[in-house]
Amino acid sequence: MSNANDYQALNDTVISNGYCVGCGACAVPEESPFTMNLNDYGQYEAVLASDRVFARASVDIEKVCPFGSGAPSEDQIGKDLFDESCDYDSQVGYYQGTYAGYVAEGAFRDRGSSGGMGTWILNELLDQGYVDHVINVRPGAEGREDGSMLFAYTVSRSTGETQAGGKSRYYPVELSEVLREVRETPGRYAIVGLPCFIKSVRLLQRQDPVLAERIRYCAGLVCGHLKSTRYADSLAWQMGIEPSRLETIDFRVKNPSAPANRYSTSAGSADRQEVVPTNELFGTDWGAGAFKYKACDFCDDVFAETADIVVGDAWLPGYVEDSKGTNIIVTRHPDIQALVDNARQEQRLELDDISVAQAIQSQDAGLRHRRISIAYRLYREQREGRWVPPKRISPSKHLKPRYEQKRQRLRVRLRDLSHHAFIGALKDRDLDTYLKAMRPVYREYKKHSHSWMTRYLWRIKGAVKRCLRLVPGFQRL
């Protein structure tokens, strides 16, 4: 049970230092003094209500936050859940099966961002009677206090409703409202979410017997990072739709004539619909991290290690060329493994067995950022005297090759600048305020993102130009 000291501790560490990912776990327990708020940057964050600070919540609030002090790590949670039935890898977590493939039945693959596996497993759990309800993210926010949100967690009670929750949503959501509904409505539930959200559900289940009994399965999504609402706004604005007029957005429109990673973005208002190749829009370089939550730079879980199954994109040679999309799948729960095996035998799923090494390769960039470079980011925060959340990776100032340190600093700068510059653009009612602030920093970032040979040649070219400037007649080179 929490008291005022626990609330203040969470507020003074996680929230005050920018590590709240907006999952809403701290606002779920009865008598919690926390509420969820959408800030000016378009990020959900927990807010401590001063008039309720002396309430006594039914759980230890600090230990339901995925970044909170004292909360068990993904390794600890995974061991408790999966140790008896799974093998273990330090980057993937626990696993029974590892696959690359897609859904061969129905329209799951056509309607999904990739191979359709995320929606399929939720539908299968519902169809086969394993659960009564599915908690997923769907367009619109019917019945919510803030009707301006384009996406929200809802409870789906039919396969049609579950299907509406397909596709990737690079957009903030929070769990507190929907989990309160779970507590009020008996039944068996499955939930899908990002790694930190699934971890927060597991942490709640450790202290809340109602949620532990009702939420039977957790499906995770391989994660790069979470975006604020301003990411959607910025893409639509570049397509000629001002943020105040944006009504719909699809972040992953497949292009039949291009590889799976060359998709488009579709945005709509009341009187306009636009579709543009995503790589033609500024700010879509995932590594640069525009509109990223700070918390995401301090998360070391890529493969949703506390989930019963995790699904992502198969960014692997031989799969990425297929424009229809292919999933990476890691199974952990015996029930889900059985569903996958049966559907595979019935040819409803087309799956290739792949090695753990191939699964890791499919998410190579994300793992390098989240499992290696995080050590340097932790070191920089600690060097400035700031609190950092407990992580499985220790802080270190040694990051090799050395240019990677500069690249990490530029990623942090781009992350922070995107939030502030877009606020300026909204005030000016001019998208160029954002673009002009970001582009010079992004150019500097790209210069440090080339291969070592390219950087070496750039240095030689720069040295030659400096020498030639000293020679009469070459000043203009």
UniProtKB/TrEMBL annotation:
**InterPro entries reported in the protein's UniProt record:** Co_F420_Hydgase/DH_bsu_N, FRHB/FDHB/HCAR-like, FrhB_FdhB_C
Any Pfam family matching the protein: FrhB_FdhB_C
The segment(s) forming the Coenzyme F420 hydrogenase/dehydrogenase beta subunit C-terminal domain are: 188-355
Q: Which residues form the signal peptide?
A: none
Domain Coenzyme F420 hydrogenase/dehydrogenase beta subunit N-terminal residues, every copy: 98-179
In which domain of life is the source organism classified? Bacteria
**PANTHER family from the entry?**
7-HYDROXYMETHYL CHLOROPHYLL A REDUCTASE, CHLOROPLASTIC
Quote the protein name from its UniProt record.
Answer: Coenzyme F420 hydrogenase/dehydrogenase, beta subunit C-terminal domain
Q: State the organism named in the record.
A: Marinobacter lacisalsi
